[in-house]
Automatic annotation (TrEMBL):
Gene3D superfamilies the record matches: Glutaredoxin
Recorded GO MF terms: thioredoxin peroxidase activity
Record lineage: Bacteria, Pseudomonadati, Pseudomonadota, Gammaproteobacteria, Alteromonadales
The protein's name: thioredoxin-dependent peroxiredoxin
Annotated organism of origin: Paraglaciecola chathamensis S18K6
Keywords per UniProt: Antioxidant, Disulfide bond, Oxidoreductase, Peroxidase, Redox-active center
Length: 154
C-alpha cells in the first residue's frame, strides 16, 4: 500500500454514483473535495461516519467543500444506504477498487484473526487545483467530521 500524501496531485477518477451517473474528480474543479474511503455501506462504523458528515454538510458547504464517499460496494447498494440514512452527498462505487489502489488505501487488513484485502478508512482533502491538501488517517469514525472541520477552520 503506497498511500498518497499531501502535496501530491490527486489521481483523476470517474466512478458511478448511487444513480449510476459518472462522477469525475475534475467535475469539482475550483472547489475543495473531501474524498473519504469507507469499507462497506450500512455497517455500524460507516453509518456513523456518514451520518455525521450528513449532519455537518451545511458547515462543509460554507467552506466550499464537496463530500464524496467511495467504497467497493456495488452501485445498487448505494441508494439503499443513502435513503436509509437520508444522506445529502454522493456515494461512489469502486467495485474493482482501482481508485482505492490509485490513492493507496487498498491493502491488507486484519480483523478477528483473519487477513484479507480491503479499503482502509482514510480521507483526502483535495484543494481547488486538484492537489491533496491534507490526509486524514487518525480518527475514530464518530469523530471524523470534527477532525475534518477542525482542520478546515484552523
Amino acid at each position: 500500500m503506497n498511500r498518497l500524501t499531501a502535496g501530491e496531485t490527486a489521481p483523476e477518477f470517474a466512478l458511478p454514483n448511487e444513480k449510476g451517473e459518472t462522477v469525475k474528480l475534475s467535475d469539482f474543479s475550483g472547489k475543495k473535495v473531501l474524498v473519504y474511503f469507507y469499507p462497506k455501506a450500512m455497517t455500524p462504523g460507516c453509518t456513523v461516519q456518514a451520518q455525521n458528515l450528513r449532519d455537518n454538510k451545511s458547515e462543509l458547504d460554507k467552506l466550499n467543500v464537496v463530500v464524496l464517499g467511495i467504497s467497493p460496494d456495488a452501485v445498487k447498494r448505494l441508494p439503499k444506504f443513502i435513503d436509509k440514512e437520508q444522506l445529502n452527498f454522493s456515494l461512489l462505487s469502486d467495485e474493482d477498487h482501482a481508485v482505492a489502489e490509485a490513492f493507496g488505501v487498498w491493502g491488507l487488513k486484519k480483523f478477528m484473526g483473519k487477513e484479507y484485502d480491503g479499503i482502509h478508512r482514510i480521507s483526502f482533502l483535495i484543494n481547488e487545483q486538484g492537489v491533496i491538501e491534507h490526509v486524514f488517517d487518525k480518527f475514530k469514525t464518530k469523530d471524523h467530521h470534527q477532525v475534518v472541520l477542525d482542520y478546515l477552520n484552523q
